[in-house]
């Protein structure tokens, strides 16, 4: 096994063992604190050991399932926190079910599990902060070098300028390759003038390089295949620029895509057959659950819209509009009306950030996404999901398909009430904006999973509660 992969596995094993000890310790110390506060009685050691062991195993398994122990996990600290919450939350329900079903006589006081889970979440978040930010346990940034300093390589300089964008790696520099367009290339980053020949391996060793990103403008006849092959055999990761950007930014750089990359990638169709089979059931149950709590707000919103201008103009409080759905099929989306009745008297227009066509109540219900609630009926009808690319109007789709490459691929999944693009690029009112949002939409189409859906839901709830979105 390559030395680099061996080191990565060693780091992951150390991380698993360390977190197992932390979880077990917090499970024990929580009981001790509850006893000292006279909130519970002292439990026998064997009873405590079974509960601590069960809690530790469940959290480790759930953490493993959400990717927290992946050797190549590339995630922001906020993303890691969300994964911790998901894994510990799932573990809470697992422990409750297992302990009540099989170890009812060994069940702890009702205070024990919630207090333990709260303490474990805080402990794991603090621990991950130090391991990621300070490089403890050898889990610091990956050192990378980029082959190429031209136009393609400049996408890294343009899109990843901030420190938070580079939280998972340490960029040593860019190595110019013959054929690079230097006029449109790297301007401010470190340029490394080193020949990529048989001595390149020595440069890799001297600088502790763990990954090479291929970003040259011309590949044919310029890439040293033998040298890269040797690096790969020695355990150095060799990554295409598109894969690197996809991994680090959560988007697919559409304007840099080439046919062979699409052919050899895992495509833009879901391979999760169980998820596809349960898609409607899960979405319908979730829609019914949300409708149970939101129908009073929906009734109140409809009444206010009617009082505001509905009774005067005779216009419906709902707004129905044709949109493009799964596989290009048209459907009618339902929303609360947030614009004036004559908003499109001159034809279809892109919505703008401070659109003067929006009514007084419209500004409020858009800010808190209340205008989207009637789309629950689209979910019940199977036309939409909770998570997916936002559906666009056919008039705009016709234009975007002609001007934006690969745009039709976003119709490989059902449109959604919330999406990956809305979280990362919240506003779009032009073809250029559609191109940017497509980069995130295609990332979602390619990587759709239950975990990604959960993470998007969590972030969407945060946006809605604090009114950050449109």
From TrEMBL:
Q: Where is the Bacterial sugar transferase domain?
A: 282-465
Q: Name one GO molecular function term.
A: undecaprenyl-phosphate glucose phosphotransferase activity
Q: Which InterPro entries match?
A: Bact_transf, EPS_sugar_tfrase, Sugar_tfrase_EpsB_2
Localization annotation: Membrane
Biological-process GO terms, alphabetical: colanic acid biosynthetic process
- The source's superkingdom equals Bacteria
What keywords would UniProt list here?
Membrane, Transferase, Transmembrane, Transmembrane helix
- For this protein, the parts annotated as crossing the membrane are 12-36, 48-68, 80-99, 111-131, 280-307
Q: Which GO terms describe its cellular component?
A: membrane
One Pfam match, given by its short name, reads: Bac_transf
Q: According to Swiss-Prot or TrEMBL, what is its membrane topology? A: Multi-pass membrane protein
Grouped into one coarse class, the protein's main location is: membrane
Where in this chain does the entry annotate a coiled-coil region? none
Q: Which Gene3D superfamilies match?
A: NAD(P)-binding Rossmann-like Domain
NCBIfam families, alphabetized? EPS_sugtrans, EpsB_2
Q: Which family does it belong to?
A: Belongs to the bacterial sugar transferase family.
What's the protein here called?
Answer: TIGR03013 family PEP-CTERM/XrtA system glycosyltransferase
> Native species of this protein?
Salinimonas sediminis
Give the organism's phylogenetic lineage. Answer: Bacteria, Pseudomonadati, Pseudomonadota, Gammaproteobacteria, Alteromonadales
């Amino acid at each position: 096994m390559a030395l680099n992969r061996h080191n990565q596995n060693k780091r992951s094993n150390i991380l698993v063992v360390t977190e197992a000890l932390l979880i077990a310790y917090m499970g024990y110390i929580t009981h001790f604190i509850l006893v000292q506060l006279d909130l519970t009685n002292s439990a026998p050691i064997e009873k405590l050991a079974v509960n601590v062991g069960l809690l530790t195993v469940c959290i480790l398994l759930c953490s493993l399932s959400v990717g927290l122990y992946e050797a190549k996990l590339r995630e922001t600290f906020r993303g890691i926190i969300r994964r911790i919450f998901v894994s510990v939350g799932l573990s809470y329900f697992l422990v409750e079910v297992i302990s009540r079903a099989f170890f009812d006589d060994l069940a702890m006081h009702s205070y024990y599990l919630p207090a333990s889970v709260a303490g474990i979440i805080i402990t794991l978040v603090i621990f991950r902060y130090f391991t990621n930010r300070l490089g403890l346990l050898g889990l610091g940034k990956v050192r990378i070098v980029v082959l190429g300093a031209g136009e393609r390589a400049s996408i890294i300089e343009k899109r990843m300028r901030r420190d938070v964008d580079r939280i998972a790696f340490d960029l040593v520099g860019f190595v110019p390759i013959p054929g690079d367009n230097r006029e449109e290339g790297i301007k401010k980053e470190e340029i490394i003038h080193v020949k990529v020949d048989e001595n390149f391996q020595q440069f890799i060793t001297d600088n502790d390089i763990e990954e090479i990103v291929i970003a040259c403008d011309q590949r044919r006849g310029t890439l040293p295949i033998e040298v890269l092959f040797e690096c790969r055999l020695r355990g150095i990761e060799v990554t295409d620029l598109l894969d690197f950007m996809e991994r680090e930014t959560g988007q697919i750089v559409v304007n840099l895509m080439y046919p062979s990359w699409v052919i050899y990638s895992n495509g833009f169709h879901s391979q999760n057959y169980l998820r596809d089979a349960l898609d409607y059931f899960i979405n319908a149950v979730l829609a019914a659950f949300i409708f149970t709590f939101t129908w009073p707000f929906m009734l109140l919103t409809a009444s206010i819209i009617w009082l505001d201008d509905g009774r005067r103009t005779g216009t419906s409080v709902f707004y129905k509009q044709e949109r493009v759905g799964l596989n290009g099929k048209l459907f009618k989306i339902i929303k609360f009306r947030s614009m004036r009745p004559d908003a499109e008297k001159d034809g279809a227009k892109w919505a703008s950030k401070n659109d003067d066509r929006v009514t007084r109540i419209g500004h409020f219900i858009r800010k808190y996404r209340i205008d989207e609630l009637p789309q629950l009926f689209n979910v019940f009808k199977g036309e939409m999901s909770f998570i997916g690319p936002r559906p666009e109007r056919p008039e705009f789709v016709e234009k975007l398909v002609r001007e934006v490459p690969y745009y039709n691929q976003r119709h490989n999944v059902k449109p959604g009430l919330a999406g990956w693009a809305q979280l990362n690029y919240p506003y779009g009112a032009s073809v250029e904006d559609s191109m940017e949002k497509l980069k995130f939409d295609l990332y979602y189409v390619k990587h759709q999973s239950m975990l990604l859906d959960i993470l998007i839901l969590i972030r969407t709830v945060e946006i809605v509660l604090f009114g950050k979105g449109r």
